[in-house]
Amino acid sequence: MITIEQLTYRYPDHAAPCLDDVSLAITPGSFTLMMGPSGSGKSTLLRCLNGLVPHFSGGEIAGSVRVLGEDALSAGPRVMSRHVGMVFQSPEAQFVLDRVEDEIAFALEHVGLPRSEMRLRVEEVLDLLDLAPLRDRELRTLSGGERQRVAIAAALALRPTILALDEPTSQLDPQSAEDVLQALVRLNSDLGLTVVLVEHRVERVLPFVDQVVVLDAAGHVRSGPPRTILPDVSLCPPVVEVARAYGWSPLPLSVKEARRFALGITPTPKPAVSAAPPQRGEPYLRITDLEAGYETKMILNNLSLNLWPGEIVVLMGRNGVGKSTLLRCIVGLLHPRRGNIWINGQNNKGRSVAAISRELACLPQEPDSLLFADSVAEELRVTLRNHGQPEREQVHELLSQLGLDQVATRYPRDLSVGQRQRVALGAITVTQPGGLLLDEPTRGLDYAAKAGLASLLRQWRNQGAAILLVTHDVEFSATVADRVLVLGRGGLVADGSPQSVLANSPLFAPQVARIFPGSGWLTVEDAVAWKG
Amino acid sequence: MNPSSTLLLHPLTWVTWLVVAITAITLTRNPFYLLTLLLLLALVAEVERPLGQMRPLDPILFAAFTMAIGGVFNLLTVHYGDTVIFHLPANWPLLGGPLTMEALVFGMTNGLVIGALIAAFGAFGAAMPVGALLRLVPRAFYPLAVVVAIAVTYVPLTLRHARQIREAQQLRGLQFRTWRDSLPLLLPLLIGGLERALQLAEALAARGFAADQVPKRLRLLLVAGLACLFAGLLLRIVWGYALLGAGIMVAGGLLAFMSLRAAGRRSRRSHYRHYTWGRNDALVLAGATLTFAALLLPWSGSGSLFYTPYPTLHVPAFEPLMALLLLGLLAPLLTRSGVR
């Protein structure tokens, strides 16, 4: 169905090729996962399937890409759109119209299909993706997952044989991501649609994948069945890493498969660490009886919490429960209706956002919103100027600590997602605040970037920083948290050590805890350490 | 608010309604009628606003703002009228001279006009899906219409990004003191907008969207038509050949129109939705016709539309029947109440 032979591609103005002598084949009706570090060329390879590369991007290309007998590289996206439907990272950036049904029908109107045919196809895809109840809704009123399903429906309306998706869940919370991935699995298994997916959250799709394509930083590719390829891939989901450490064969790809092997192991339960925080004097952040909301809607009710220096606290909870609202209250972007917030012993009331963020920095969900300067170093200097602080050695030192000293003169928006996030972290922490708030910091990061972030946060925690992290990422939480809080409707419903809160939770348990229930293990390191 | 988000009227009915509303607002300077129009149009905008959608701009608040700005600006710059409030020193450039009540009222009336226009477009925008507007555009102008549709769709998205950026910059200590402080807001907004535009272009290309190839012959005809229009305009205005210029302009216009029409016929575009005319349309069109007739037909009350506070401020005339007939623009509410 798809045959790629000796494909080499170089972007305009780039010396090194992005794809180097790539050859692979994808069979009809298969589910193919493309994985690899950021910048390895996964998205570029995907765009070759419908001719967006090189027709849209320019550059030099050699080799051949044949899709259903068509030469995709010479046919171009207009012809290939009949065979390959494409879905991109951000659902918002691919919509033209404002309502669900109109958006799905847009491409059909463009190719001039008769109305009766259009109606049939729209009804089909609405049902396939469970969108019928949302058909009259405005796109802006939908959740991220619903919007991404609309984007998939719009691509499927043209009845392509292949669906290519470029990190469709990277901007979504876990539940929305799960909905989208389940929809893809259903389309592949029920309809026989060929799915080619570029994805970082591979743990969810791995059990359904027929073929894995792994790209490395040099643009080289290995492909084959997951059990053949994954044993040699460096950064994998926890289930695969544990299986490799224990030498399980055939390689399990899901928690269910791994449990069969784990039955033969009797782990020594890890003693639960005391939930008591390292209380040394006053907490760095103290919140009492907080009530907050928007217009007439109350979101937070009677919430109290403390954050001490030298601890990483993870705040979890379902969407819309008020996690981001709490962060907005703490930094002064939203005024609480009742209650008090003290930072470093000082009440927040009447203080400006700038004054608060000098002592308790906050990384927003969209780090790109912070970046506008010409260079990485200049981003940090801008913050110092905003706060009227002189520049000494702190810019140089922080860049070195963040691992950005080699790119200090580069334009920040040219960097990878993980690097951009570190620049944003630098921009908010260059004033050397005693505390740090992070809102969904792992969104869009690959395994290597997440590991780098975890290491950095631990380093700051060890230097005495008080860190509060809002995230849906249970694997990341298990890696970094000293204490886990769960926010329910109105207030906190759990506050304890990661073992006590995460290990037995049906919703928040990481993969290792599910493989070894009752062990108290949360991370790959826990499981590997026991094996010794 | 509108809980169903469905279009209950034919798009052309909404277009007609909008034309009548704009005609009413631009024809009268009577503050009583303008206030009536503002309130009724704001009501239609509120009822048509889809459930869960934020109000992009409160028309009443916006009108209060434009009235204040218009009133103060006119008060300070137009020194005409009999009812003097006080004098500013005559040697003050532009501002010096008598400040009059008439200038204040005239400026506020103009502000009210702008507020009412915003309310009319707000109601139209809330009621009409972008797709319905797109389908009204002739095929020859379809690519242009898609560009406009994208722009309309991007407005709320851009506003949301602007808020995100403002908050993010506040978090790194930015405080807005001078115009230079807006650069950290504008640059990420501009760069982010360009990035999103590229992503959208790529997504459109992947869905097979591309402008149709117009034959060279038709493109030449279009260029020739536009050139004739321009040449005719020059002949009439610059060289004074009124008749010859008009003839060339008509010929050029026809040529341009015919070439666009021919290009449009080559397009394969079809329409997903089939809008039908119904009783609701008749009701709204009847209401709009009543208002339109009241505005344009000569009758005893039509004189009350015209009002100027100069030279001496006086209370505007008020014709109850005229105000009643303006309420014809409220007809869309009847269709909504029928649905419920």
Write a concise synopsis of the structure shown.
Chain A has 532 residues and is of the alpha/beta class. Chain A folds into two domains: 2-233, P-loop containing nucleotide triphosphate hydrolases (Rossmann fold); 285-496, P-loop containing nucleotide triphosphate hydrolases (Rossmann fold).
Give a verbal description of the structure:
The complex is a heterodimer of chains A (532) and B (340). Chain A has 532 residues and is α/β, with parallel strands linked by helices. Helices cover 36% and strands 21% of the residues of chain A. In chain A, the strands form four sheets. In chain A, strands 6-7-8-3-9-10 form a six-stranded mixed β-sheet, sandwiched between helices. A six-stranded mixed β-sheet of chain A has the order 16-17-18-13-19-20, sandwiched between helices. Chain A has a four-stranded antiparallel β-sheet with strand order 2-1-4-5. With 340 residues, chain B is mostly helical. Chain B folds into three domains: 11-133 and 276-339, no CATH class; 139-206; 216-266. In chain B, helix 10 packs antiparallel against helix 12 (331-339). Chain B is globular and about 65 Å long. Classes of the chains: A alpha/beta (532), B mainly alpha (340). At the A-B interface, strand 6, helix 4, helix 5, helix 13 and helix 14 of A face helix 5, helix 6 and helix 7 of B. Chain B: Its main location: membrane.
